[in-house]
């Protein structure tokens, strides 16, 4: 097995990742950790592209020009690495990964204690880790519901007051109608048949005297 078969992530790549981690670039601390993990994972993946595989699959080319075959292997690794990194960068840009990681890091930093205690770390239980965040959201939702309830109660009180006022007006109007009806009934009682007949008789008697 050749030295190329035992290739490990280059010291240059690792040192560059350490430099990025130390500088904490625009991606933020968690974004830098992510790039570090991607870089090491990619280097590990590319290390499996061994020259022995090329020798096994292209024995004639290896016999004729082993140096050319090694160059093909290096070109393949370089092109593959470039394409993978480009796809990962596009995926991170589409999903806005780095801004999200930066926001998460800011939240963790903001809630870290100042008494020398350990900063908050995920417990692995989503329900427990999101309890505080969900609590604040539910409190806001509760306040909204309380406001809606208060508004509905106030509107119901206004409607009840308006209904009571209308009921009083209706009762007053009914009282007036009843009084008017009573007056009309009294008039009809005065002008009944006997009264009209008596009035006619009196009128005729007056004409007879003349």
Structure description:
By secondary structure, the protein is mostly helical. It is built from nine helices and no strands. α2 (28-46) packs across α6 (97-110). The longest helix has 60 residues, at 131-190. The radius of gyration is 49 Å and the shape is rod-shaped. It starts with 10 loop residues before the first helix and ends with a helix. The relative contact order is 0.05.
Outline of the structure:
The chain has helices at 11-23, 28-46, 51-57, 59-64, 66-95, 97-110, 126-129, 131-190, 193-209.
What is the H/E string?
A: HHHHHHHHH
- Our measurement of the CA-to-CA distance between the termini, rounded to an integer number of angstroms, reads 161 Å
Biggest sheet statistics:
none
Structural class: mainly alpha
Number of strands: 0
Shape: rod-shaped
Which segments are poorly predicted (pLDDT under 50) over 5 or more consecutive residues?
1-23
Determine the fraction of residues in helical runs and give it as a percent range: over 70%
Mean pLDDT: 77
The percent range for strand residues is under 5%
Radius of gyration: 49 Å
Q: Helix segment count?
A: 9
| Oligomeric grouping of the chains | single chain
InterPro entries: PMF1/Nnf1
Keywords: Cell cycle, Cell division, Centromere, Chromosome, Coiled coil, Kinetochore, Mitosis, Nucleus
Main location: nucleus
Pfam families: Nnf1
